[in-house]
Every structure is written in structure tokens, then in C-alpha cells.
Q: What sequence folds into this?
């Protein structure tokens, strides 16, 4: 993978997981205009995708090793950015149940 | 990838780049030699044929300033109207046109062109090169911007300007609720202007990645370049959804294709999604270049280096990505489930973190250094005060329940002005006062600039601070009168009075610029003692920027220490000994010299091309659809002539860039700038396709409207037709592997065949696209595919023509590489479309 | 700049809190929760603004030895993350509490058109009662409003009772409002909807008894007829 590739891999992964969870959520909630909650099965599916997404950062963290030089540090920082963003923006799948 | 793999980049990094110095020559002789080659033609005609980045960058910024003044005058009319509750003088229709045009002008005709202009003007100077990657494209962008802007202004003069608000929510903007051409002016005019945004994005990306001075690694380039790289990539991905949305809405208005009509299977929310998919990143597209200017100016004003370079680059990266995950916070009240709102609320809150990282890095830089009170510093402090408050109200608006109260009220108006004026206008004023000596070669007239700053600061906060309260007291946006609410009167009156103060401040700022240009004394070179290449040149900057291009030993030094060496030709590619515009192209990561690009000279072709696109736009506006179709013929012919201008000609031997460094010219290089540019363009094109696909998915999953009628398109005939198209395009993509006339001819044939089949399908099999949104989207996809196949066919024909002219040889590829990339892209997107259609048919 | 501004805003809100469309003068539990959220965020924002300004003022002086990580990670990352997480948490918590739920609340309908509102509630004898530009609700209990639109996008907003919700053609949106006491509350269309946008007002009348006896109010229900 080129250096630029490593640099954007983490944020790209966030974008992918974020779009996927949003799309699945839209699909699960489609046709439910009422105040009913999300079916438990759909919710577990969303949580599953989120957790798998978080796990997907492990190989990426292994790929972008920490280093002293800016050249090595930046991809590492970017990967952490993606990981934190995935954790932070999608944690509502665990605490919110409404559709 | 395992740890055992040898990283080729690491190996490359291990060997430092060394380029030896060229023996010095007389600076004046070099200057004359270069000026002859790089200068614009004389007179007014010379302005028309100019393609030089300094000329065009300044012209972009100058024109944007004029539009800023016009938008400002419109805002004064708005404030005058709102000063009293009965609304003194505008009728509602005119008022609606004025606030719509105020927003549209400030966004599309001021902010975006201003930042494009800054990037185009500054980047080559900062990176140590002589021009942008595609000078003719710069000029094309400028003319499209100018003509599009003029179309919108003319509409305003004739009282038929857009009147549906700058985000053009449909159904209000559809043909039923907005008859007349008002909405078409917006859709067509803005799309016309966006050609310049895409053009600028493509060439800014390529210039930053491929034209840095040899040895200037990505990780060491000035932060402004990182910011502009982020901006341009965001523009490549952010603008296509808007273009897709505008094209679909115009199709709905012109031909009744119901993409957004809920009674025929469409959905008004699709427009909102497409618009805000562009609209939110847009805010960061505007902010990033301004922040880039701050990152350049603050260290110089504080006599130090920037603190936390790595953290800032990571913050830019985070902003670039996160800002695509916030668009729904403009749609918190449309009835989206709370969980989805929570995702976007969290993302909107999170995006404040990289912003905070930058703000604290800048303040830390000030602590580290010794801040000095020059004029740019005033505007920087104005930025901090205003932008921090705007950022905090932004966080408030990201909180869903509060947003439900504050959305669409004056609170949002106040917030967005704090962010845009704080985050863009103040930094731009800092940038103007910082770089003006390089533009004019003159020194500032003391006093007026400082006074202008204080008046602007007072006027701004006086206008917008209490507007937060006006909003919290319930005043909605976009009302022209409020007879029943006396409690809003004094708030509005105060805002109106201070808005006039603000305007006086801006007038003083412009007067200060004029005084500097006319009365300023001659400034010496490098007045700020800056460490960057933009100041390592004479002032005002010459047309060619550098008499010789900086080499590794010139980098990272104060501008004044290397200025003389560069002027005397000690760097690379000294002078213009071959009488043509040459610059050095380097590799993406480590900026190793790769080849020499020969740039086109002055030409009026960009003007003719944008004028012929303008004719098309005007015909569409006049509902002359047949003539509009015909007017695309000159566009096609001019593009062909344009491409002919890129054909290899003249001496194509190797060039000695520096002693012992022999480089091929770009015609003989597979990794040319053109190739990088096409890659960047295809990213934008791919996003456009993805936006259409998003439309298909959204309408089939989320929209629970009218069920579509049974499609006749789902017949055996169409299946066979689609399969034939698929096979033909796979064949065409395979042909594009082999650089022989025979393969290219077969490729041309396959493209033509699939085009014919597509036309046959459209005529005989396709359902009427006016009946249901599903069929309208299918027709739009067919149009997208057809256009791409047609272009692929034209490119194959162009390559064949190049074989006939014997321009393609084993060393020179001609346009073959471009065709190959386009053909692969086309084949892939058309195949995806076919598969999606099949899946949709199978599901229903 | 900030201290005078603070005093100013305090004086202003005392004077002007009770406007008929003021979100700062809530008249029901939902609007009250949101108003509290606002006051808390305002206090936090004032502190942060002052903090940043103090840092800026202190920057003007002799060059100092600084720790880059303190600024970028300490303040930029951790400080902001701590504040933002708590704000987000509070927002989501309030959001969940004020959402419409499946609890048998009274349901009324609001149908928007260019330019007015047609409201429907279930009156005595399970009769559908239609009114124009006046919405009748019971006081002291949550009411769900089902919002639809005839033509373009409008938005249903009664600032003293709850946040706004758009009326979108082809969709039915649900929002919850609640008034503490009987009375009349002002409402308006919050989404720009054409030349009649500014006049597209309505009011909400909260009643002690439900369903209300509208026979003596015949004039009210006729008033807004288009």
C-alpha cells in the first residue's frame, strides 16, 4: 500500500462502516413511521456490524506502526482517527432503541 | 502485507535526493528570456488569451470581490426591510429573490471562487513551480464562473432571479410551485459555475501532488498545501452530488421526470440528501483554505515555526472525512428516526475536535513565538474571537433537541455568519493584508487598515450577536414582515444599524486596498522575513515565478537566503532556453524529478469553449431543447481542438534540468500530469455515478410512496439488449489494453455498437420516464451511460486519428492512455448499472 | 467583549423572555427540558470563550518553551472530547425522553398547505372535528401531532411547547407537544414555503377538559378558513 493509501485507510474504513450502518438502519426502519422501537434482531445486526467494524481496525493498526519520523507517525494518527470516529459516531447503536 | 516485505518507499527514502547546482548566470538576462515566453499577450486581447496562474488567480479573487460587494448590497436590502416590523419597501416576491440571491452569491460566486483564486494564485509560488498543471483549464474555469455569475445577475436585474432559498427545497422549486425560469436560473447557472469548481479541484490536486519542488516531500510541504489538498479532494467528492441533484431537478422541471414528486414515486427528501451531501462539506471546503492561510501567517507573525505540524495534518484529514458524515444535521426536523439522528449528532460534535486541535495549535504557536501586532494579526485575532463563538453555537446546533428549537430561525443565521465571516472572511482579510505586497509590490498606507478592522469587528458582532437571541425568541428565517411580534423590533433594528457599520468597515477595507495599489510606496522583497518559497521571488511576482526552480538545498531556508540563487539560475530548469513553457514534474511522495511538462501558451480557446457551453445553458433556460442539443456540437468540436492542442509536436528530446539530470518530456512519460488529472476527474465522475446510485437505493428502500406500474422494460428483449451492451463494453475495455490501430478500431466499433443498442432500448423498450420516479431514474442512468460510451467512442476515434497522423510511436503514447482509463471506467460503471437494473427487476 | 455581552444577554432575556414565540419561556415539560439544555450549553460556551480569549491575551509576551502535545493533544483532543462527550450525552438523553412513544397519548392531525393549517382532533362522540389555524389540545398531558402537507414542505412549530417538525408531502411525521396549563400558545410555519410564508401562523389552544366543548367558540374554528 502506498503512503497516501495508508494515510487514508483509517478514515476510509470509518466512512465505509458509517455508511453501511446508516444504510442498514434505514433499511431496518423503512416503513415504520410510528413510535415503535427498532426490532431487537435489527438492533443486534447493527451492533454486530459496528463491532466487526471496530475489529477491522486491528489489522490496520498493525500495518501502520508507530515511529519517530513524521512519515511513520501520520498514518498511525490517521488510523486512530478512523477508529475513534467509528467508536464515537456509531455508539448510539447500543444506547438508542427507537426508530 | 507482512513485515518481511521490503518497502520500496523506505529504500527510496534512505537515499537522499541530491541535485547539483547550475552555474549562476546574469539574473536580468534570465528574466528577459523567461518573460518573453511566459508573459501574457499585450492589451485587452492579452487578457482574453491569458492562461497564467498569477493573472487568473488574481482575476478569480477580484471577480469574487465584486460579487461579494453585490451580495453585500443585497444583504443591506434585507436588513433595511427587517429594520421595522411592517417591512418598509420590498414586496414579498422581490424579498424572496433577494435573500435567495444573497445566499447563492455569497456561497457560489464569492466564497468558492475566492478560495479557488487564492489556491491558483498561491500554490505554484509556494510549491516552487511556474504554473498550475492545466493552464487552459484554469482559464476555462474562470470564464465558466464569470458567465454563470452573469446569467444569475442578469436574472436578478430582470426580476426573474431564483426565489426558493439558496437550498432550493423541492417541491417549492418544482415546475408546479415555481413556474417561470427563476428556479432554472439557479439550477443551470450554479451548475455552469460548478464547472470551474471541478476544474480547479482537478488541477489543484494534481499541482500539489506532482509539481512540488524536487525534494519537498509531502510530509514537509507548507501546511497551506495540505489544506488545499484536503479542500480539492473534498470538492471532487462534494460537488458531484449537487451537480447530480441539480441535473435531476432540472430534468424534472423541464421534462416532468418525477424524481422528487411524491405523487409519482419520487421523494422531496432525496433532493435534501443530495443537496446537503454537498452542502455540509461545502462549509469545510470554505474553511480549510482559510485555516491554511492562518497556518502560514501565524508563525511568521510570531517569528517562530508552526506547533504540531503532524497533529494539524491529522486534523485536516479528520475534517475532510468527518465533514461528509454530518449532512443530516441540516435535516434533523424532517422526521428521520432518532437513532440515525444520533449518528449524525455524534459526528457533528466530533468534527469540533479536529477544529479544536487546530485552534489550540495556533494559540500554542503564539505562546511559543513572539506575536507582533502587524495588520494581519488584527484579523487573526478577529478570527479567533468570532470563529470560536461560531464553533460553539455549531456544537449547540449539533445537539438534536436544541436543533429542533433553533433550526430555521435567526439563531442559525447568526451561527452561519459567525462561522463563515469568522472562519473565512477574517482569515481572507489577514491573507490579503499579508500577501498584498507580493501582488502589488507596494507598501501599505498606515492607519486605514487598522480602522477598517475595528469597524468591521464592531459592525459584525453588533449585527449578529443579538441575532442569536432574535432566533431564540422565535423569529424564523426568510420572513419579510413580522407585524404581530413587536418584541423582535428592537433586536432587528439593532442588527440593521450595525449591519450598516459592517458595510462601512468593508468599504474602508477595500479603500485601503485601493490606496495601497495607487499610493503605496515601493516595498522591498520578502517584507515579512518569511521562511516559504512564495517570498523567494521579486515583487510583484513575475509571470514565471522562479527564474530557476528550487532544488533540495534551497528548501527549508529563509526566503531571503535563496532568492538570489534562484534568480541567478542556480536551481533546476533555469531560464527558457528552448523557448517554451516548461516545468518540473516530480513523484507524489518524495518529490523526485520525474519528467518535464511542456505547458500550452496563451490561447482564446477556453473563452470560446465556455461561451459555447454558455449558449447551451441559455438555450436550456429558454426551453429551446432542440437548439440546446444542437449547441452541444460546437462544444464537442472545441473539445476535439483542445485535445489536438495536447498532441506531441516539436522537439521531444530529453531535457537537462540540472547538471547531469536528464529528464524526458511529458509526451514520453506514462505518468504525465494529464493522467493524474484524468484520475482526479474520474474520482469526481465516480462520485456523480454513486450519487445516482444513492438515488436508486433511496427511492427503492426508504421512500414508501406510490408503487411503480409494471415495467415493460423487464422483458426478454431488454435483457438481451443489456447483455449485448455489457459484452460489447467488456470487449472495448479489453481492446484498450493493446496500443495498436487494430485494437483501437475494434474498441471504437464495440462502443458504437453498445451505443446503438442503448438507443434502440431507449426507444423501443424503456418505460415512459414521466410516469414514475423508478423509470425516470432508469432513464437518467441510461443517459449517463450513453454519454460515457459516446465520449469513449470519440476518444477511440481520436486515438485512431493520432495513429493516422503518426503521432503515436513506441515512445509516445498520445491519447491512448487517456482512452484506456476512460474506457475502463465507462465499462465498469455501465456494467454496474446493468447489474443494478437486473437486481431491481428481480426484486420487484 | 464577553463580560458586557454576558450582562447584556442577562438583561435582555429577563426583559424579553416572555414573548409569545419564545423558546426561553417554555410552557410545557418538553420545551422546558430543551430550554435547560440551552442554558447549560450557554454557560459552558461562555466559559470556553473566556478561556480561549485569556489564552490569546497571555500569548502576547516573551517567547516561551511550550510542549506541543499539551496544546494539540491535551487541549485540542482531550479537553474538547471531554466537553463534547458530555454535551452529546445530555442531548441524546433529553432527545430520548421527549420522543413520541407508544403510550396511548392523545393524537391530533396537522395538515399544512399554502398557506394555512387544517387541524383535526377527535371531539365528543368520537366525531372528527376540523379547525383552521387553531389547534385544540388537552392541557397537562402529552399530545402527538401527525403532520402532513398538501403541496410543499412546511414546518410545524410551537416554540413554547416543543421543537419543530417538518410537514413533507408524501410523508406523515409525528411529533410530541405538551402544555402545562390551559391557554393559547402561538405557532408558525418554520420552513420557507413561498410568498405566504411569513403569514402562515396558527395558535394552539390547550383545554382543561377533553374533548373540549367548542360550541361557544364557533367563531374561532371559522376564523382561519381560506
A:
Amino acid at each position: 500500500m502506498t503512503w497516501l493509501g495508508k494515510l487514508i485507510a483509517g478514515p476510509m474504513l470509518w466512512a465505509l462502516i458509517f455508511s453501511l450502518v446508516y444504510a442498514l438502519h434505514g433499511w431496518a426502519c423503512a416503513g415504520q413511521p410510528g413510535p415503535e422501537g427498532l426490532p431487537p434482531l435489527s438492533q443486534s445486526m447493527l451492533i454486530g456490524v459496528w463491532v466487526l467494524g471496530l475489529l477491522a481496525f486491528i489489522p490496520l493498526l498493525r500495518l501502520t506502526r508507530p515511529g519517530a519520523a513524521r512519515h511513520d507517525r501520520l498514518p498511525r494518527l490517521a488510523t486512530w482517527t478512523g477508529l475513534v470516529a467509528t467508536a464515537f459516531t456509531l455508539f448510539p447503536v447500543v444506547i438508542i432503541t427507537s426508530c | 502485507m507482512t513485515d518481511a516485505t521490503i518497502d520500496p518507499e523506505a529504500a527510496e527514502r534512505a537515499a537522499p535526493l541530491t541535485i547539483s547546482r547550475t552555474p549562476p548566470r546574469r539574473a536580468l538576462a534570465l528574466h528577459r528570456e523567461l518573460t518573453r515566453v511566459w508573459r501574457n499577450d499585450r492589451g485587452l486581447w492579452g487578457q482574453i488569451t491569458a492562461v497564467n496562474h498569477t493573472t487568473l488567480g488574481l482575476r478569480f479573487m477580484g471577480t469574487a470581490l465584486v460579487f461579494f460587494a453585490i451580495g453585500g448590497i443585497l444583504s443591506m436590502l434585507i436588513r433595511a426591510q427587517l429594520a421595522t416590523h411592517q417591512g418598509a419597501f420590498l414586496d414579498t416576491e422581490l424579498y424572496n429573490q433577494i435573500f435567495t440571491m444573497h445566499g447563492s452569491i455569497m456561497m457560489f460566486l464569492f466564497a468558492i471562487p475566492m478560495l479557488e483564486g487564492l489556491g491558483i494564485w498561491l500554490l505554484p509560488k509556494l510549491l516552487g513551480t511556474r504554473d498550475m498543471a492545466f493552464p487552459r483549464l484554469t482559464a476555462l474555469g474562470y470564464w465558466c464562473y464569470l458567465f454563470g455569475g452573469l446569467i444569475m445577475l442578469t436574472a436578478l436585474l430582470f426580476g426573474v432571479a431564483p426565489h426558493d432559498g439558496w437550498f432550493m427545497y423541492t417541491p417549492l422549486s418544482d415546475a408546479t410551485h415555481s413556474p417561470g425560469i427563476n428556479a432554472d436560473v439557479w439550477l443551470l447557472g450554479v451548475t455552469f459555475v460548478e464547472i470551474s469548481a471541478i476544474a480547479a479541484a482537478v488541477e489543484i490536486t494534481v499541482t500539489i501532488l506532482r509539481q512540488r519542488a524536487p525534494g519537498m516531500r509531502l510530509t514537509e510541504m507548507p501546511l497551506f498545501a495540505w489544506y488545499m489538498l484536503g479542500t480539492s479532494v473534498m470538492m471532487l467528492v462534494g460537488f458531484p452530488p449537487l451537480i447530480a441533484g441539480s441535473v435531476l431537478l432540472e430534468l424534472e422541471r423541464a421534462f416532468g421526470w418525477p424524481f422528487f414528486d411524491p405523487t409519482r414515486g419520487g421523494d422531496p427528501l432525496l433532493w435534501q440528501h443530495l443537496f446537503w451531501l454537498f452542502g455540509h462539506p461545502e462549509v469545510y471546503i470554505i474553511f480549510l483554505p482559510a485555516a491554511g492561510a492562518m497556518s502560514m501567517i501565524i508563525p511568521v507573525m510570531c517569528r517562530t515555526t508552526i506547533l504540531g505540524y503532524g497533529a494539524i495534518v491529522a486534523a485536516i484529514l479528520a475534517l475532510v472525512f468527518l465533514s461528509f458524515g454530518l449532512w443530516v444535521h441540516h435535516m434533523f426536523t424532517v422526521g428521520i428516526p432518532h437513532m440515525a439522528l444520533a449518528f449524525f449528532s455524534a459526528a457533528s460534535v466530533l468534527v469540533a475536535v479536529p477544529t479544536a486541535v487546530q485552534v489550540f495549535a495556533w494559540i500554542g504557536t503564539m505562546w511559543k513565538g513572539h506575536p507582533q501586532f502587524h495588520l494581519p494579526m488584527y484579523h487573526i485575532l478577529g478570527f479567533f474571537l468570532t470563529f470560536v463563538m461560531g464553533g460553539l453555537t455549531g456544537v449547540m446546533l449539533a445537539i438534536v433537541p436544541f436543533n429542533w428549537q433553533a433550526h430555521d430561525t435567526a439563531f442559525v443565521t447568526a451561527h452561519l455568519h459567525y462561522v463563515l465571516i469568522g472562519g473565512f472572511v477574517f482569515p481572507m482579510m489577514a491573507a490579503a493584508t499579508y500577501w498584498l505586497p507580493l501582488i502589488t509590490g507596494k507598501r501599505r498606507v498606515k492607519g486605514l487598515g487598522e480602522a477598517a478592522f475595528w469597524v468591521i469587528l464592531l459592525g459584525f458582532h453588533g449585527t449578529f450577536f443579538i441575532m442569536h437571541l432574535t432566533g431564540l425568541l422565535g423569529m424564523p428565517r426568510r420572513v419579510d414582515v413580522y407585524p404581530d411580534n413587536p418584541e423582535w423590533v428592537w433586536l432587528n433594528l439593532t442588527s440593521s444599524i450595525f449591519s450598516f457599520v459592517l458595510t462601512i468597515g468593508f468599504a474602508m477595507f477595500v479603500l485601503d486596498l485601493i490606496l495601497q495599489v495607487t499610493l503605496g510606496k515601493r516595498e522591498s522583497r520578502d517584507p515579512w522575513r518569511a521562511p516559504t518559497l512564495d517570498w523567494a521571488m521579486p515583487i510583484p511576482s513575475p509571470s514565471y515565478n522562479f527564474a530557476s526552480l528550487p532544488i533540495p538545498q534551497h528548501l527549508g531556508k529563509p526566503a531571503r537566503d535563496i532568492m538570489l540563487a534562484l534568480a541567478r539560475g542556480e536551481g533546476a530548469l533555469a531560464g527558457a532556453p528552448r523557448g517554451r513553457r516548461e516545468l518540473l514534474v516530480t513523484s507524489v511522495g518524495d518529490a523526485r524529478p520525474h519528467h518535464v511538462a511542456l505547458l500550452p501558451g496563451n490561447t482564446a480557446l477556453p473563452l470560446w469553449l465556455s461561451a459555447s457551453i454558455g449558449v447551451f445553458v441559455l438555450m436550456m433556460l429558454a426551453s429551446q431543447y432542440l437548439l440546446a442539443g444542437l449547441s452541444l456540437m460546437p462544444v464537442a468540436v472545441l473539445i476535439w481542438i483542445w485535445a489536438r492542442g495536447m498532441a506531441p509536436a516539436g522537439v521531444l528530446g530529453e531535457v537537462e534540468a540540472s547538471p547531469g539530470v536528464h529528464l524526458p518530456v511529458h509526451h514520453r512519460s506514462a505518468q504525465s500530469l494529464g493522467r493524474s488529472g484524468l484520475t482526479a476527474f474520474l474520482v469526481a465522475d465516480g462520485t456523480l455515478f454513486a450519487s445516482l446510485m444513492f438515488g436508486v437505493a433511496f427511492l427503492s428502500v426508504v421512500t414508501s410512496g406510490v408503487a411503480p406500474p409494471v415495467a415493460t422494460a423487464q422483458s426478454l428483449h431488454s435483457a438481451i439488449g443489456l447483455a449485448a451492451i455489457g459484452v460489447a463494453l467488456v470487449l472495448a475495455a479489453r481492446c484498450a489494453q493493446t496500443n495498436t490501430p487494430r485494437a483501437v478500431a475494434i474498441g471504437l466499433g464495440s462502443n458504437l455498437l453498445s451505443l446503438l443498442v442503448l438507443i434502440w432500448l431507449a426507444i423501443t423498450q424503456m418505460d415512459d420516464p414521466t410516469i414514475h420516479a423508478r423509470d425516470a431514474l432508469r432513464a437518467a442512468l441510461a443517459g449517463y451511460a450513453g454519454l460515457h460510451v459516446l465520449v469513449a467512442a470519440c476518444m477511440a476515434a481520436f486515438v485512431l486519428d493520432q495513429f493516422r497522423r503518426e503521432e503515436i510511436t513506441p515512445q509516445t503514447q498520445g491519447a491512448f492512455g487517456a482512452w484506456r482509463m476512460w474506457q475502463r471506467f465507462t465499462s465498469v460503471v455501465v456494467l454496474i448499472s446493468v447489474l443494478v437494473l437486473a437486481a431491481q427487476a428481480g426484486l420487484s | 467583549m464577553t463580560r458586557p455581552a454576558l450582562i447584556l444577554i442577562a438583561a435582555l432575556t429577563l426583559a424579553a423572555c416572555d414573548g409569545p414565540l419564545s423558546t426561553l419561556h417554555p410552557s410545557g415539560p418538553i420545551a422546558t427540558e430543551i430550554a435547560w439544555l440551552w442554558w447549560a450549553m450557554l454557560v459552558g460556551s461562555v466559559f470556553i470563550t473566556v478561556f480561549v480569549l485569556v489564552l490569546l491575551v497571555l500569548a502576547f509576551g516573551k517567547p516561551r518553551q511550550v510542549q506541543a502535545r499539551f496544546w494539540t493533544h491535551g487541549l485540542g483532543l482531550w479537553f474538547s472530547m471531554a466537553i463534547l462527550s458530555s454535551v452529546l450525552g445530555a442531548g441524546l438523553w433529553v432527545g430520548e425522553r421527549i420522543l413520541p412513544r407508544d403510550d396511548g397519548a392523545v393524537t391530533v392531525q396537522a395538515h399544512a398547505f399554502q398557506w394555512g393549517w387544517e387541524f383535526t382532533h377527535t371531539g365528543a362522540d368520537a366525531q372528527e372535528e376540523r379547525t383552521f389555524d387553531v389547534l385544540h389540545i388537552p392541557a397537562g398531558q402529552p399530545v402527538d401531532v401527525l403532520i402532513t402537507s398538501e403541496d410543499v414542505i412546511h414546518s410545524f412549530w410551537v416554540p413554547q411547547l416543543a421543537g419543530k417538525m417538518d410537514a413533507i408531502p408524501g410523508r406523515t411525521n409525528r411529533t410530541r407537544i405538551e402544555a402545562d396549563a390551559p391557554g393559547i400558545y402561538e405557532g408558525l410555519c418554520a420552513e420557507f414555503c413561498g410568498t405566504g410564508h411569513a403569514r402562515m401562523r396558527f395558535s394552539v389552544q390547550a383545554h382543561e377538559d377533553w374533548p373540549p366543548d367548542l360550541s361557544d367558540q364557533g367563531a374561532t374554528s371559522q376564523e382561519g378558513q381560506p
Notes: Chain B has 26 helices and four strands.
